[in-house]
Every structure is written in C-alpha cells, then in structure tokens.
Amino acid sequence: MEKDTLQAVSSHVSEKDWQMMAAHADMPVDKLKEQILSAISRDAAEPATAAPMVRAAAARMPVLGALKTVDNCKTQPFEVSLYKIVGIGGELKVCGTPSDWQAELKVCLIVAGAKVWCTSYNFDSHNVTVGFHPNVGLAGADLSLTLSFDVHKICLSAAGSVWYIFGKESFDQRLFCIPM
Questions:
Q1: 136 phi and psi, to 5 degrees?
Q2: 76-95 pLDDT, tens per residue?
Q3: Which CA distances in Å does 177 have to 8, 19, 77, 135, 136?
Q4: Element (H, E) at 135
C-alpha cells in the first residue's frame, strides 16, 4: 500500500475505531485492518480515468437473500454497495397485513465486506422513516431508510450520502419490496 494511503487511513481511524469495527464484524482487529486496507489499496490503484458515477450506479443493485416466511411474517435479507468499498446490509422483517402491520429493520454499515456498525429499528404505520449516521473513522453515512406501500407490497428505500476517506456519493433508491 502506498505510504500516502496508509497515512490517510491512520489519520482518520483511531485504535478505538478499529476495535469497535472489529467487535461489530466479529473478527480480530488485525484481520479487519488487513481486509479493509487491502480494499482501500485496490481502490486507490484504480485508474483515475474510471467513471465513478457509472461504477457506483452499476454497484447499486441490491443483492437479496431468500425471502423467508414464518407464520404471518416475511423476512428479506439484503446487501447493497453504495460507494466503492462501502455499503449497507441487513434484513427487513414485516409482520401482519397491509392494514395492520409492524416491521423490524436490522441494518449494518459494511466496509470492504465487513459489517463494522449495526443497529435495528422498529417501524409501524406511524413511524415509517428512520435516520442513522454511522461514522467509523474511515467511512460513514447519513442514511434515511423509509417504508412505503405499493399496492400489496411494502417497500424499503434508502436515501442520503455515504463516504470514505477518498470520496463521497449521494443516493436515493428503492431497494426492494416484500409482498404482503
């Protein structure tokens, strides 16, 4: 890794940040550092002529796990790359009917494939939007996650911005819908 890149990371990420990220990722600090620094090094080595908007737009297609149905609840795992090595992932669990429902969102900030910050939120018909502002030193986001209805589906959308030490990207996108 170039010396300048390593210095940039060191100036943005404290040992406490690395320890917090490693705890969320459930991996040793050294392994997490190696994984993230390798990804940053690969990203920094990309040619400057690459069109980041095209790369980012192509990467934004959510990867959805198998929809699980248990009783009156449906759970959709998901992961989406938002900017270079940074994305979000988790699962949305929706229970009930279109007129009487509740939902739980578990979401993580993902850096270089590692879940470095996680939280959860409970939605209901009166609370359909939540904002999160994770900051882990070398990456962060200002996220607004919203549930909306589309005929007999409940949909999760994400808007805001995501950054890491070499840039920032804004987004506003419907991620997926779950049939009710």
A1: -115, 25
A2: 999 999 888 899 999 999 99
A3: 39, 35, 11, 28, 29
A4: none
